[in-house]
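input
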Amino acid sequence: MKRTILYISVLLTTIVQAQDSADKVAAPGPLKITGYVEAYYGYDFNKPLNNLRPNFLYSYNRHNETNLNLGFVKANYQTERVRANLALGAGTYMNANYAAEAGTLKNIFEANAGYKLSARKNLWLDIGIMPAHIGYESAIGKDNWTLTRSLVAENSPYFESGIKAGYTTDDGKLQVAALMLNGWQRITRVEGNSLISYGSQLYWKPSDRITVNYSTFFGTDKPDSARLWRSYHNVYGIFQITPRLGFTAGFDIGREQTKLNGKAYHTWYTPVGILRITPGSKWAFALRGEYFSDEDGVIISTGTANGFKTIGGSINVDYLPLTNIALRMEARYLKSNDDIFLKNNAPKNDNTSCTFSTAINF
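output
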């Protein structure tokens, strides 16, 4: 009997020690390594001869081929007062959006470090390359309601480089931020530009069903010799009307001087709406309507009489077999006032495309 009791005691002690060791191994540390891969196949019914989709599209921009839109490995370090992110990326998204950057900067998806300025309040100072404070769509496709990005997302910053001071209320419902930036989607400032640009953000989430955001940009993205001041306003709301029905509405407007030291401005604007239906945990459907007006070619230059005035619509089907996997399909139609598209080297005013993607985060 004594031997049995002794044996049970040793066995229980061993189990407890093993459980303690497992808990120590499983306990999350300050450093976390994650990754993301999104591959796609796109088909443009205008059949571009160079297999490159229209130049105002920077994601999923290859025709009739399977490719990598975005893949990255990310290291995140987080303690109570310190945080840092480093992510190295590759893909056609990186090639298109980082084309103006030099050398190894072309592959830096994110690189920033931050310090919590207050021991009691959520007041942080972050410096480096970080996701843009403008817009509700990010470069990470799986996080967006539609497979491809809206015209407004493609033609406003995805990333930015600078200094960000951000404050979040204790209940997490309100976030405010002020930024000093190197420019409009820039890591390296434009050669000959001696000035810093600025940004602000007001993000309000009063409940799980409502999100409202207002972001701004003010600065210049040109050399001092040809300086044109630009201002930009981004407003959007995300409304989860029911557990299965959500709606996103956004409106962006920008102004830029017509000439150096001029008092006249060119204006562009773009409204967008996305309706999302999730009948179950594994399926999602989205309908998007959008319009982009840039008559003077500030952001999208066409060289045509009416400039870039394009309306678009898309339908999206997502299958989510697991929480970290998304299989997606989208059909998209764009129609412009002018013949800004080409088919068989002949101008036309519309474009139809289909895109398929597989996105996995790990």
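quick obs: Helices lie at 2-26, 92-97, 151-154.
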